[in-house]
Design brief:
Number of domains: 1
Shape: extended
Radius of gyration: 32 Å
Number of helices: 3
Largest sheet: 2 strands, antiparallel
Number of strands: 4
Strand order of the largest sheet: 1-2
Order of helices and strands: HEEHHEE
Distance between the termini: 92 Å
Structural class: alpha+beta
Helix content: 25-40%
Mean pLDDT: 77
Strand content: 15-25%
């Protein structure tokens, strides 16, 4: 008589969110090297190192390059952005005033570029 085998099923399942949480919490490193040689002469060498982890884990490992990067500094960029926004708002106000002046010519909308009534 043939022996019966029972199938084992996993009692625990991991969702994608669980796996992602574990990876970000612990961190993962993917490394690879690509070398192109021709007759023992190395023409190209590429080293790839990819680290995937949470911001907290990166800080813990000393990989907080964004902290001192001026692009990510809040004050300087906000001031530049605010002055640019003010300039754009002033220019928009001038354009609106110009269109209001040119808006009606015998009750029709007038194009400021063509100085002719639009249909």
């Amino acid at each position: 008589m043939p022996q019966q085998r029972s199938m084992l099923h996993a009692t625990e399942s991991s969702t994608l969110a669980d796996v992602l949480e574990r990876v970000l919490d612990k961190g993962i490193v993917i490394a690879g090297d690509i070398r192109v040689k021709l007759v023992d002469i190395e023409l190209l060498s590429i080293q790839i190192r990819l680290v995937i982890c949470s911001v907290d884990k990166a800080k813990e490992m000393g990989m907080d390059w964004w902290v001192n990067n001026p692009i990510f500094q809040r004050g300087e960029n906000c001031e530049t952005l605010a002055s640019s926004l003010t300039s754009i708002e002033e220019r928009m106000g001038k354009l609106e005033a110009f269109f209001r002046k040119e808006e009606t010519r015998a009750g029709q909308l007038v194009s400021p570029l063509q100085k002719a009534p639009l249909p």
